[in-house]
Amino acid sequence: MSKGDVKKVVLAYSGGLDTSIILRWLQDQYQCEVVTFTADLGQGEELEPARAKALTMGIKPENIYIDDLREEFVRDFVFPMFRANALYEGIYLLGTSIARPLISKRQIEIANQVGADAVCHGATGKGNDQVRFEMGYYALKPEIKVIAPWRLWDLTSRTKLLDYAEKHQIPIAKDKRGEAPYSMDANMLHISYEGKALEDPWVEPDGDMYRMTVSPEQAPDKPEYVEIEFKKGDAVAVNGEALSPAALLTRLNEIGGRNGIGRIDLVENRFVGMKSRGVYETPGGTVLYWAHRAIESITLDRGASHLKDDLASRYAELIYNGFWFSPEREALQALVDATQTHVEGTVRLKLYKGNIITAGRKSPKSLYRLDFVTFEEDSVYDQRDAQGFIKLNALRMRLAKMARG
Q1: Boundary of a domain, candidates 155, 179, 203
Q2: What CATH number is associated with residue 129?
């Protein structure tokens, strides 16, 4: 694409240095009308400065979108994912991955609203986000033009970016020349830290880096109990107080964070082929994941539970790789949601210095029957039935041994 090929573009815009440079680069490279879109996903930053910065760079007021997507994010993306107990490579709760389809969805909605023929993101050509954004764009609007500046321009170093910013009078924060020793991405589910000082997987992260959690060593010396109520697989109340999805996750972030819950340090396999080291804080999500597994333990049938476990890693991989809008993810979601009909009740957790301990669980739909499992005398289970059960299950192994010696 070149000048004249693009008439109007919707840019995913944070107001930071990189996307501000992209904004000016779009204006120069394509001489097109630019619409900025900033998503409030609970990242904990004041977003109005993004509006002011866009105005100073010549964006019309009606072309600046700052949307509060917090409730939609948790209700329609985070909660469905947690119903599936999705963990990428057995540990990562997908905090960055699950935000991307919502951002791409809203970008396309704005593009349709304003008549834009292109969308633009600021993801690099080495990472997963470029895939996630663009998979969303094409799934929702197949004919859309996609501009990915990091794959196109010659601003290939931090020095060149800063020189470009100074040349075009783009404001540079005082700390940008020195820069933070890592890159950070935040939303209300988590914060991720990557790159620079964290690139050596042997080096322990600086304890001062974390923002959502205290260290386990600094957490209170007394355990804190929390009760989480579920209906149809979704958390609906904390300590007896009914909360909206976003408010509930915020509350669990506060509770988990002050108890040192949710820090992980992992080397993961990116979809583009390389390994990368990431450090994540997911306090509320970690508590929610643990509680959901606990309530499922008494409300899900064994077969349904084991099937979900078999599919959870596949579901997580689809989200990580950018296939949220794919037919296979939607099919898996339908299966997962069907298993959640009777997943309701309350879980009590004990949080202590980075640890989560299940302290109790109860449900009106519980499949746990004390009269069946008791070690005391009962009148509902004939232990002699187990003999035939064992022999039938052992039959194939007995036959194999007799045949082969």
Answers
A1: 179
A2: 3.40.50.620
CA distances from 13 to 17, 39, 324, 358, 395 (A): 10, 8, 22, 42, 64
DSSP 330-397: HHHHHHHHHHTTT--EEEEEEEETTEEEEEEEE-TT----HHHH-SS--SS--TTHHHHHHHHHHHHH
User: For residue 177, what pLDDT band results from cuts at 50, 70 and 90?
Assistant: low
- Sequence-separated (6 or more) residues with CB below 8 Å from residue 72: 102
Evaluate if pTM is beyond 0.70: yes
Residue 176 has pLDDT above 60, yes or no: no
Amino acid at 219: A
For residue 306, pLDDT over 90 is answered with yes
Rounded CA-CA distance 96/270 in Å is 13
- Please report the pLDDT score of residue 46 as a whole number: 83
Read off the amino acid at residue 299. T
pLDDT at 273: 87
The pLDDT tens digits for 127-169 are 899 999 999 999 999 999 999 999 999 998 778 888 999 999 8
Point out the domain boundary residue: 179, 206, 238: 179
Give the rounded distance of the alpha carbon of 193 from its chain centre.
14
Same domain, 18 and 157: yes
Kindly state the greatest CA–CA separation across the chain: 86
User: Which residues are marked as active site?
Assistant: 18, 100, 129, 183
- Give me the CATH number covering residue 188: 3.90.1260.10
Give me the phi and psi of 364, to 5 degrees please. -70, -15
- For the segment 63-72, what is each residue's pLDDT rounded down to a tens digit? 999 999 999 9
